[in-house]
Design goal:
four-stranded antiparallel beta sheet; 25% helix; 5 helices; alpha+beta; single chain; five-stranded antiparallel beta sheet; 165 residues
């Protein structure tokens, strides 16, 4: 997961900083008047950062593009077409979830909702089509495929645990 550092700038706004996977620093300063400044680079003392200033509307459009609201890459479009009336969601398991410590089989997502865990994403060693005996861990991200209406029940199961039988 990407770490975002938030710094209050009294009288100015808030600065958000991340380091990309290529170790480049990106800062966004959100001014109190809605103006945004993006600073890219400038990690070295000799290097000046590239600065882009955006008004509120421009920042929202860029945000929509980056988050996939406006443009969906062909790979995503192809996946959505292949899934048809199914959806895939990524659900992170909080440490307090009652299904942490249970196996894929005993958490009963499939038997109670009809949805399937197709992968478990972990910092070290993600699993595709996890074995029913795989133990779920805090911080796991479950990649689940199912019908759209099942995800309310899945979130309830993650929050409250499997129904008692």
């Amino acid at each position: 997961m990407v770490e975002v550092r938030e710094t209050r700038l009294p009288g100015v706004g808030t600065k958000f900083t991340i380091n990309t996977h290529d170790d480049e620093r990106v800062c966004a300063v959100v001014h109190m008047d809605g103006m945004r400044e993006l600073y890219i680079g400038g990690d070295d003392e000799d290097e000046e950062p590239v600065v882009v200033t955006l008004n509120d509307d421009e920042a929202r459009q860029i945000g929509a593009i980056l988050s996939g609201v406006v443009y969906r890459p062909q790979l995503v479009q192809d996946l959505e077409l292949a899934l048809k009336d199914l959806v895939m969601e990524w659900i992170e398991l909080p440490a307090k979830s009652p299904i942490v410590g249970l196996t894929v089989a005993t958490c009963r997502i499939r038997s109670t909702t009809g949805a399937t865990i197709v992968a478990i994403l972990r910092e070290k060693g993600s699993l595709a089509t996890p074995h029913p005996d795989e133990v779920l861990r805090a911080g796991d991200t479950l990649v689940i495929i199912g019908r759209p209406e099942t995800f309310k029940d899945i979130r309830k199961l993650v929050d409250e645990g499997p129904p008692q039988s």
